[in-house]
Design a protein that fits this description.
globular, eight-stranded antiparallel beta sheet, 6 helices, single chain
């Protein structure tokens, strides 16, 4: 299957509107740290059977990522004005995406640079963090539930990566959209440092 690109997405603009108002089941894995350089990472997974197609999954994941990092609640019924605003934000960001195909090895290389570093920061600062901040503000969370065994946590990727692309690959902003035979995946990490 071909990976998405801006021209294809732009040509399906009318179809996108319905996707902005749908809320599919998406697993949200949040890696949270107070380390200024590492910041936070988001890894999203969704079963293919829960989406109409690749574009539906992409829009749903982008919406979840946007909602999470912009701290905007958009997992509710949206008004036409909400949709117009979100659609404009979506098209603006998507226009800047690379949509550069990468191999499964590149996919794993990228996430294995960032996620283990965040995991190490969480483990190294465990005692210090317990004294200074709310335990529910740092760590690894699956659908807002804290993972207690951070050291042994493994991402729930089912099968082999069959398709992946960089959406953004600048040093301080990594976004990747990928798929396996049964799942869509979305990785998002950025730092202001």
């Amino acid at each position: 299957m071909e990976m998405l690109n801006y021209e294809y997405i732009e040509s399906r603009a009318s179809e996108l509107i319905q996707y902005f108002n749908s809320n599919q089941e998406i697993n949200v894995i949040h890696y949270a740290t107070f380390d200024e350089l590492l910041a936070d990472a988001l890894f999203l997974t969704g079963e293919k059977q829960n989406f109409d197609n690749q574009l539906h999954a992409f829009v749903s994941f982008w919406k979840k990522d946007y909602s999470f990092f912009e701290n905007i609640l958009i997992d509710k019924e949206l008004t036409n004005r909400d949709i117009e605003f979100i659609f404009t934000s979506f098209m603006s960001e998507v226009k800047e995406f690379e949509f550069r195909q990468i191999s499964d090895l590149e996919f794993y290389k990228e996430i294995n640079i960032i996620l283990p570093a965040i995991k190490k920061a969480i483990l190294d600062n465990h005692a210090k963090m317990q004294e200074t901040v709310d335990i529910n503000e740092w760590g690894i969370f699956l659908n807002n539930k804290r993972i207690n065994d951070v050291e042994n946590y493994i991402l729930p990727i089912e099968g082999t990566i069959t398709n992946a692309c960089f959406l953004s690959s600048v040093w301080n902003n990594i976004k990747i959209f990928a798929e396996t035979s049964s799942q869509y995946l979305y990785f998002s990490w950025g730092t202001g440092a």
